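Re: weekly structure request thread

Next one in the queue (214 aa):
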Amino acid sequence: MTEYYIPTKRSETRLVEKRSEFIGRVWRVESEEQARACIEATRKHDHAANHHCWCYVIKDGPTRYSDDGEPQGTAGQPMLNVFQREGIENVCCVVTRYFGGILLGAGGLVRAYTQSAKDALDAAGVSVVRRWVAMELPCSYNQFETVRREVVAFDGVVENIDYGADVVLSALLPEEQAQAFRERIVDVSAGTVEPLEAGEELRDVPVRPPVQTT
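Done, posted below.
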């Protein structure tokens, strides 16, 4: 089964460290060309900045980074480490620095660029790309919480809830969990809830919501 993690959306964050301003940006990209375009667009947008350090990871493609004039090993690689630790692919990150006149030292730069990349990823959120089985789950109001808990227990996602005479949950279940989930729902409901399969698809679904930034 294909499964990988990507940013949910584009993001932009700001961090000030000893008067230096660090602007972290994250994009979801599909190719090295798209990543390079994001980097160049940032250079043009913040043309007065001192540094534009960057990294990108392309699924089944290249992984690259740059310190862009900062001391070697203090920016690009620490930024890249943030995404590799999280297993994020198809991502481009640029951290732009406006120098504030106070030297941060190697350790301070590593911390600032790492934090900027992490803040930008948190603001973007994380989605998982995998093959899902869509199911409709009609149940009584008394059964609603039980059914919803079982969806979550099987790594599924409730996409919609229709409240009528009964409740109908529209859910996505990981392909490899679908059969076991069906059997579990029939078991816990004593056969009164019958999951109805509504198709399969490969798509991204948010698993970690974006963090609001000020």
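Residues 133 and 200 are 4 Å apart (CA to CA). The helical segments are 32-45, 76-86, 105-124, 144-153, 178-188.
Next request, please.
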